[in-house]
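So, can you check this record?

>
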Amino acid sequence: MQTKLGKRFWISMVVFGLMGQIAWVVENMYFNVFIYKMFHASASDISVMVMASAVMAALTTIVMGAVSDKVGRRKAFMSVGYMIWGLSIISFAYIRSVMLTIVMDCVMTFFGSTANDAAYNAWLTDRGDATNRGKIEGINSMMPLISILIVFGGFMGFNLDEHSSWMTIYYIIGGLTFLIGVAGLFMIQEKDSLKKSDASMLQTLVYSFRPSVVGQNRLLYAVLGCFAVFGISIQVFMPYLIIYYEQTLHMTNYVMVMAPAILLASVVTAFYGKVYDKKGFGFGMVPVLVMLLLGYGILYLFTNTAMVFIGSLLMMCGYLTGMSVFGAMIRDNIPESRAGQFQGVRIIGQVFVPGLIGPAIGSFVLRNAELILNDDGTTSFLPNRSIWAAAMAVAVLVCILVFILVKKTHKRNHNHVY
């Protein structure tokens, strides 16, 4: 029987999850556009920014996730973290260079990862159990898609070639993030059984990296490894996605094309968590990988609006349902009362490794990309379809790794996997 969590939990989860993802979408998808349009950033500039942010996210989540376990609290880290996160986003309104953007991106990522990657995700793990984790992840995995839709729709009213538009955007997103943090002081409920850890800070920090702990939780680390490769496939194209649509395909109406795809993918993702709850990891990953590979293939082969829509829909469905299945499987295998300490290794698989390797692959395959001349005499690169071929090659490796993992785990009679 599924454990009931109550309306207050679901409201808090949606509010914090959605606002956090809106802030991350602005960073992950539009900081790239910001430095491309305002400062004519190169593919390597974008790659460096994504990689630096990934490193900061991983280090922050390792440390602050462990700290939240040590003190036995999530609420303060979530609420205060969101408030400072919001203020750091506002600071981007006054940035005037690529280098300063990269530096401030790392600063913003520290507060965002503290509040969201470490505290919020540990809180979700605390509150869920084996009876409802697929449902939680299904809804939580909708948040990135819905946030993309909100951001895309909201940005339609701005001319992103003008710095004044970016100032307004940063004030709106930063201000809303700050207000959500304030609201969290009254909304968030801690898990009653969450207690302060008696272990030293050093013991808490290194716990999830101990060889003995890895040995005791082999399945968890194997899933994290597969998740990392899955994330690499996504990060090959994601930093260049909007630039590809707008500049390479000349889809000035890309929001109108993407919005229906995002809505449909959101519906699929919302219900997909139940597939994991009922059928398990192995069964759930098959449609995920099929959708992802089909999406990549269509986006590689076609550039007309109708086929780009279909390819984008399949790619988005594969991406978000994959996040849902991997996320649920990871939470199911995190030891009880250790949620904060394992957020670090989770973020290494979800953000750090993909953020280092994926954009580097993308930058490599775009090294000879076509250049266009800007009005001020500078040049900008045009992403090409090679990003889809590279992403597909990595996704094929994911298929192989998932097959091996499921086959080996099935032999060991892990019924919750297959």
User: Anything to note?
Assistant: The mean pLDDT is 86. The chain has one domain: 7-188+203-411. The CA atoms of residues 90 and 171 lie 5 Å apart.
